[in-house]
Design brief:
Blueprint lengths: L8 E6 L14 H16 L3 E6 L7 H6 L4 H25 L4 E5 L8 E2 L2 H9 L3 E5 L9 H11 L4 E6 L4 E2 L11 E2 L1 E3 H7 L6 H10 L3 E5 L5 H6 L6 E4 L1
Parallel strand pairs: 1-2, 1-6, 2-5, 3-4, 3-5, 6-10, 9-11
Antiparallel strand pairs: 7-8, 10-11
Helix pairs in contact: 1-3, 5-7, 6-7
């Protein structure tokens, strides 16, 4: 029999790339299905859950800005890409019998509710999975920053940062075979060493509010459940 969940309320940050699978761009339905199965499993444990999803598998505002597009316009286009991913996750979750709500920081009422904190909290209390789209609704802020902000607003006990690697390393493990995994690391060390966890705004927000971050490999099936049940998976960034 499973132990009781370690957390009552969590926020899961998914990058757009997590939805790619083996594709070069777009959404892999098989990957979305697997992630939805895992999310539903956590929800069935009685854990209140919010998701923040990126849009890099469809459109990257930062790259468009670097190529000459106005940064504000590029970032707004990136926010719309996150909404597309949120709708894909909603569709897959609801096909599995899980009630969800997509809340968007940009108002597009035909497909999503506007983000209102009290409404988001009410959805969680009623047992719905809340999928948060369009970042913070502001240009120049990443979806990592949105995840940190929403996690604190919604009083999540932990921020789960899904990545393609097993946690926080001393260097990029793809480029440097000698890079070592750091199981536990402080916020200041992440900032001072420039470790690739989340952007500096997100790390600073979490540090100021003592919100722990667990960085883990989303490609390993069952990792989300293991973390929620208290297993030592990935790397923990904390005080």
């Amino acid at each position: 029999m499973d132990r009781p969940p370690r957390y009552r309320r969590i926020l899961l940050k998914l990058s757009g790339e997590a939805l790619l699978g083996e594709r070069s761009h777009g959404i892999d339905a098989g990957i979305v299905g697997r992630l939805s199965d895992e999310v539903r499993e956590i929800h069935d444990l009685g854990v209140e859950m919010a998701l923040v999803v990126g849009g890099g598998n469809i459109y990257r505002g930062g790259e468009a800005a670097s190529a000459g597009m106005d940064r504000v316009t590029a970032d707004h286009m990136g926010m719309l890409a996150t909404l597309m991913n949120a709708l894909a996750l909603q569709d897959a979750l609801e096909k599995r019998g899980t009630v969800t709500r997509v809340l968007s920081a940009l108002e597009i009422r035909q497909v999503a509710e506007p983000f209102i904190l009290r409404r988001a909290l009410r959805h969680l209390e009623k047992g719905r999975i809340v999928i948060l789209a369009a970042g913070t609704g502001n240009p120049y802020f990443t979806t990592d920053s949105a995840a940190a902000l929403r996690a604190m607003e919604m009083k999540a006990e932990v921020l789960l940062k899904a990545t393609k690697v097993d946690g926080v390393y001393t260097a990029d493990p793809v480029k440097d075979p000698s890079a070592t995994l750091l199981k536990h690391v402080g916020y200041l060390e992440v900032l001072e060493r420039g470790l690739r966890v989340m952007d500096t705004t997100a790390i600073s927000l979490c540090m100021d509010n003592r919100l722990p971050i667990v960085v883990f490999n989303i490609r390993v099936p069952g990792n989300i459940r293991r973390i929620v049940l208290g297993e030592d998976v990935g790397s923990t960034v904390s005080q």
